[in-house]
Design goal:
Blueprint lengths: L2 E7 L12 E7 L1 E7 L11 E7 L8 E6 L2 E7 L5 E4 L6 E9 L10 E2 L2 E6 L33 E4 L4
Antiparallel strand pairs: 1-2, 3-4, 4-7, 5-6, 5-8, 8-9, 8-10, 10-11
Length: 162
């Protein structure tokens, strides 16, 4: 189990002669995974789902914030299975979305942020699908596709760099 910890100390006063008691509060690592309803390949409304797990096996409770770059889209509470769902309003183009679990000190759980998910959004704020060529790759089969093979947008995951 991967865990980090924090030590909390009671401050000394001039009259204190006894040792300072230390209270060790473990902070257990968490993982946040972000998915989009658009990953099914069908166009439609966008629903973002964050699933948070802990290294200790505890089902996390708390809030997840969803962001498009530096713009906060909203937040949602985790349900009993550790999932939070948000139906955001996104501008047309490419959204670069992350989900951040804010941690839960009461459960001893650390915060975590998902990998970035790049999502294509059409002018109605709905999913854009990916077009695939018959040879298994992403195709540029017509003028509606842009350089990365999305039909005017799309989705794929990229790891965080930095």
């Amino acid at each position: 189990m991967t865990a980090m910890g924090a030590i909390v100390a009671t401050p000394l006063t001039a009259s204190a002669s006894a040792p300072v008691p230390l209270d060790y509060q473990p902070v257990v690592a968490t993982t946040t995974r972000l998915t989009s309803s658009c990953e099914s390949g069908r166009p439609g409304p966008i629903a973002l789902t964050a699933r948070v797990t802990s290294a200790g096996g505890t089902t996390p409770a708390g809030l997840v914030s969803f962001s498009n770059g530096s713009t906060v889209l909203g937040s949602a509470s985790l349900d009993m299975s550790g999932q939070a769902v948000l139906n955001p309003s996104l501008p047309a183009g490419r959204a670069r979305i992350t989900a951040t679990f804010q941690g839960n000190p009461g459960q001893g759980l650390a915060s975590s942020t998902s990998e970035r998910l790049v999502q294509g959004v059409n002018s109605e704020g709905r999913c854009m699908t990916r077009r695939h060529s018959s040879h298994g790759g992403v195709g540029n089969t017509n003028n509606n596709n842009n350089a990365d093979g999305f039909a005017g947008g799309g989705h794929h995951k990229r790891g965080r760099h930095g």
